[in-house]
Write a structure and sequence with these properties.
Mean pLDDT: 94
Low-confidence stretches: none
Radius of gyration: 16 Å
Strand content: under 5%
Oligomer: single chain
Number of helices: 8
Structural class: mainly alpha
């Protein structure tokens, strides 16, 4: 199963991880936080994350088509779990410091996954670069929110 059916599976897996955003949405707690000057408007997050999740799925699918189940796909699954955990920690548990620790590990996991994907399929590796950049930005944002709201 390396055709369109497997692409649908990868899309479903990434969308399942994104479902944590529905379960643990920003809500009143996030609205009350003091924000840094570089905090994007709330409307930007859904379209950016949707595009990034689709790109993550396509990247994994490309590696799957080439190698089947392989170590790079295990790395991909790990970073996907870290991604979902961040939403739970930050928005669900209201733990910006713990979420910051998670997102630092996530950033490293994405970088390692992107390199592993690049070695197997350059397009797959490149598809993870915007995700890596966005999560690097999210690290800075998470840190700033934590520092501006130490009691949060």
């Amino acid at each position: 199963m390396r055709g369109v059916q497997s692409l649908i599976v990868f899309l479903a897996l990434t969308m399942a991880a994104s479902a944590t955003g529905v379960l643990f949405h920003p809500g009143d707690w996030y609205a009350a936080l003091q924000k840094p000057s570089f905090n994007p408007p709330n409307w930007i997050f859904p379209p950016v994350w949707t595009l990034l999740y689709v790109m993550m799925a396509v990247a994994a699918w490309r590696v799957w088509r080439r190698d089947g189940m392989s170590p790079p796909l295990v790395l991909w699954a790990i970073q996907l779990l870290l991604n979902a955990a961040w939403t739970w920690l930050f928005f669900g548990k209201h733990l910006p410091a713990s979420a910051f620790a998670d997102i630092l590990v996530l950033l490293l996991a994405i970088a390692i996954t992107a390199v592993a994907f690049w070695r197997r399929d350059r397009v797959a590796g490149l598809l993870l670069v915007p995700y890596l950049a966005w999560v690097a930005f999210a690290c800075a944002l998470n840190y700033a929110l934590w520092q501006l709201n130490p009691a949060a």
